[in-house]
Specification:
The chain is 23% helix and 22% strand. The protein has six helices and nine strands, in the order αβββαβαββαβββαα. With 244 residues, the protein is of the alpha+beta class. Helix 4 runs antiparallel to helix 5. The strands form three sheets. It has a five-stranded mixed sheet with strand order 6-5-7-8-9, with helices on both faces. A two-stranded antiparallel ribbon has the order 1-2. A two-stranded antiparallel sheet has the order 3-4. The radius of gyration is 18 Å and the shape is globular.
């Protein structure tokens, strides 16, 4: 079975008929494979010097990284990756497929809008939702695609969904399924970014979004828990444009 990062790769690229080879990926832990001209690479040849998230590695005994993780990693930011996928603008940080809505409409400055969420499935393909499309994302959570599918979301546009491919779980049911969610929590000193899995039941989540809309209209404080924060984001009618 494919790891979440590998499943995401097959949908985002898209890719099929992977040629599996001996060994496992150091980062996602999945079996190594070849696809067209893409082959496993040495981990140190892909991961940039600024990468400080070694806790995410699933197989520390391996020295190789699979094409899926290379592709995803290179599409996060040119600042942390030595790998430059074919659809990344070289030398421009934060322009990767998993940082901005590269396949959607451009903003007023002619740049891709920052990414808020992704749903990847064989039924609907690679669905990217920029920061203006939280409501549309919420509609897709209420009516998810046929399994298997993967859902990633974030309220922090700088950190984004970048660690999601290695911390998420592939959904195998539409009745209850996981969403990887990066969200900010306000503390006494500053805002802290938390990463978690929110389990969604479509019917319950629909009610939560409707209630969150009423709270926003009446300026009632909404609990700062991951499930309510996700409902709150999907309840917003308009989101602030980001041009950076």
């Amino acid at each position: 079975m494919l790891e979440p990062a590998q499943f995401l790769y097959t949908i985002a690229k898209p890719a099929d008929k992977l040629d599996f080879v001996d060994g496992h990926c150091r980062l996602c832990g999945g079996q190594l494979f070849k696809y067209q001209e893409s082959e496993p690479q040495l981990y140190g040849d892909v991961i940039g010097d600024t990468w400080k998230q070694e806790f995410l590695t699933r197989n520390k005994q391996s020295s190789y990284i699979c094409p899926a993780c290379s592709f995803i990693f290179g599409n996060i930011s040119s600042r942390v990756s030595k790998y430059k996928p074919e659809n990344q603008d070289l030398g421009k940080p934060l322009t990767g497929l998993f940082k901005t809505d590269r396949r959607g409409e451009l903003n007023e400055e002619g740049k891709p809008r920052m990414l808020a969420a992704v749903i990847a499935s064989r039924e609907r393909g690679f669905q990217a939702f920029n920061i203006l499309k939280w409501a549309e994302f919420g509609e897709n959570l209420i009516n998810p695609p046929k399994p298997p599918f993967l859902v990633l979301a974030a309220t922090d546009i700088k950190k984004g969904i970048q660690y999601g491919p290695w911390q998420s779980i592939i959904a195998l049911s539409r009745e209850t399924y996981p969403v990887f969610f990066n969200y900010n929590v306000k503390t006494a000193g500053a805002e802290v970014l938390n990463s978690t899995l929110v389990w969604i039941n479509p019917a319950t989540f629909k009610k939560a979004v409707e209630l969150a809309k009423k709270c926003l209209e009446r300026k009632i404080k909404i609990p700062n828990t991951p499930d309510w924060k996700l409902a709150q984001m999907c309840a917003q009618k308009n989101n602030k444009e980001e041009t950076k």
